[in-house]
Amino acid sequence: MEGSTQNVSPTRPKLQGYDFYREVLGSPKYVVAPMVDQSELAWRTLSRRYGAQLAYTPMINAKMYANNKRNGYHRPLIIQFCANDPEQLLASAKALEAHCDAVDINLGCPQDIAKRGHYGSFLQDEWDLIYKLINTLHTNLSVPVTAKCRVFPSLEKTVEYAKMLERAGAQIITCHGRTREQRGHNTGLADWAKIRAVKQAVSVPVFANGNILTHADIARCLAETGADAVMSAEGQLYNPALFVPSPSSPSGGLHPRHADLALEYLDIVSRHKTPTPPSGIKGHLFKLLRPALAREIDLRDALGRLRGPDLAPYYDVVREMKRRMDRDAEAEETATEGGFLHWVAQPYVRPLPVENETHVEEPPATVAKRPHSGRTPDPEDDDEVKRVRHGDVGQMLAPATALVA
């Protein structure tokens, strides 16, 4: 339940697999992904209001984490770490195990900083190290360990990889159906067939990640993959109401007015004692308001110039956007190319990569993205949104517990 707080009792038995999924997490179907600078407390609070049943913290670098104890975290909550040193990972995870329901290991980040830092998907060829990372936490923590990974080009290798993660002790496997090379302009489609194969091969719960643009995609994904839940990153950032059904909507889901969502988000930020980084606030507003920013150039430029933690100028931009969108709605302007009105929250549809530009296996026929709107893609966007713009995770972890509060 949104806003509930608790601490894990050290005497509570550590449940595993489906017992953990059902009894501790409450059998969630709608999951908000771990996102650097984006799945902070304020966003998780907004997400829970609109149907999210489980949320992850932003990725924390175990090497840079400082023990800074604090109580009172919204639950259920999974804390995600990236790491390549089992002992460093264990020390950091031990410091936070009493404040979460599980610890997740990031094995999926495809960004350049992950390559330089030697973590995320750039560990996926080092199975002995991955096994040790997971097994060290599985053996020594009072809470379960889970893992989020990407697929290999080969279905057979993907399945063997997932089996290894389970043997190591992962109690939930989140499978992002894209390869390490599918990112940025080459993101392309996630392969649900590989997720289905993983689900059939392991005995622990599997979360599916990739290709979720609208609410209707959720049911299709669950049906085609057999996964226990759907995790969304990019889709949920553009419409935090992604998980809310709306039978009268062509997309099957709710699409509130984006300026109203932005104001609600700012209200949450203003009420929380845990500070929200200005970069995170601005990032959320650019995504929420994206359908109208191409039209309202002055507001786009004004938002881009904003700096610092003072919320007043952010409110000014969003309130003016709301005034203009309410005006357009009253004038009954026509829908945009993608079928959505420009004043409502909606998915961002990136162009598919040009053939032969990257190796992408044939995707399932039923999961096709709609045509690109013609807007220039944001080069920092990625389906996992696991970017670190400042080049140093540590800069976003002061105090580190601000991410998990």
Summarize the structure.
The protein has helices spanning 17-24, 41-49, 86-96, 112-117, 127-140, 155-168, 192-201, 215-225, 234-238, 258-271, 278-288, 290-293, 297-305, 312-330, and strands spanning 30-32, 54-56, 60-61, 77-82, 102-107, 145-150, 170-176, 206-209, 229-232. With 405 residues, the chain is of the alpha/beta class.
Essential attributes:
eight-stranded parallel β-barrel; alpha/beta; globular; disordered C terminus; flavin adenine dinucleotide binding; disordered N terminus; TIM Barrel; 405 residues; NADP
What are the SSEs and their pairings?
Blueprint: H1 17-24, E1 30-32, H2 41-49, E2 54-56, E3 60-61, E4 77-82, H3 86-96, E5 102-107, H4 112-117, H5 127-140, E6 145-150, H6 155-168, E7 170-176, H7 192-201, E8 206-209, H8 215-225, E9 229-232, H9 234-238, H10 258-271, H11 278-288, H12 290-293, H13 297-305, H14 312-330
Parallel strand pairs: 1-2, 1-9, 2-4, 3-4, 4-5, 5-6, 6-7, 7-8, 8-9
Helix pairs in contact: 2-10, 3-5, 5-6, 6-7, 10-11, 10-14
Pfam families: Dus
GO molecular function: flavin adenine dinucleotide binding; tRNA dihydrouridine synthase activity
Cofactor: FMN
